[in-house]
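To start, an entry.
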Amino acid sequence: MINRLVRLQIVERLDSSPAVALVGPRQCGKTTLARSMGGLYFDLEQNSERLRLDLEWNRLADGKDMVILDEAQTWPDIFSRLRGAIDSKRKRNGRFLLLGSVSPSLMVQVSESLAGRLSLVELTPFLITELKTKDSGARRWMCGGYPDGGVLVPKQYPRWQQDYVSLLTQRDLPAWGLPSKPQTTDRLLRMLAALHGQAWNASQVGQSLGLSYHTVNTYLDYLVGAFLIRRLPSFQTNIRKRLVKTPKVYWRDSGLLHALLNVPNERTLMAQPWVGASWEGFVIEQALGELSAIGRKVDAYHFRSSDQHELDLVLDFGKELWAVEIKLTSSPSPADMARLDKTAEMIKASRSFLISQTSRSSGDEHRISCNLPAFLKYLRESAS
């Protein structure tokens, strides 16, 4: 089994909290990871498993074994039971591990029943730092990070992604509350693929779908909550320039993006006019996934001024502000670095990074040109 970076964080949270919720998209490896940690496992999507849990609940709640509840959001009745069991022995930690495919913003039962009683941890599809093969970075970008999606067995891409999206639109998203017909959801997903890395314009998208911008924004909330789309807000600062305040939207998994855009292989990908946006989104997700896995809190933004000064990623660590520009090139130019310097100065960033596919890092402590693996190393060092 591939070692997941987030495992240590889960162990630490279980040591200090009675319950931990491990959330993330479907098929990203939550079940495999949870079952490797021991405990008693129940799949709450199965009626037989719900019955077994119901009959054994008192014994399990009083027992010493950790109880793993997979797809907990599918059985809302379990949350009141969990609250009662936790409150009866509040000082006992590591009792329950909940797995869910939607974020707490869509799991009303969590916010109402278990507020203050559990710790949240997010699991992403595989990160490149979790994959050790020589070509893992390129394949991870092309196929995405889902374990069954081709990153381990390339021939499974793109059929797996196509089936995955179909299942989401036909079954999962409606079950999670998305008030949209599957045909409309499918059109929206394909539009979002075409808009990857661009500013979000709900009115324009709504007009194309025959929906109001309020409705489209509601639908986007569900896709964000299902870990499919990242809505990256704009960074606001007090400078004498008009700033773009619109968020950008990105597909969180590059493999799903490429499958929706009918890209069968890396050669075809490199010929696309939007390949730079694909690389940009991939780098952003790897960076934020790495920080999430190691438990490093950060607020992430993009930045753009009216005169086209732009940063693909702004990382606000509270005491530090990092400016990040992403270029799909193996030889970034001095002009690229100069432009980054000017924009980083505008927001008073403490460090600036130009991330490309260069083979060599250069710069000093505050101005760095490097590739993605080197940047991820800087992120890990920032947490130590």
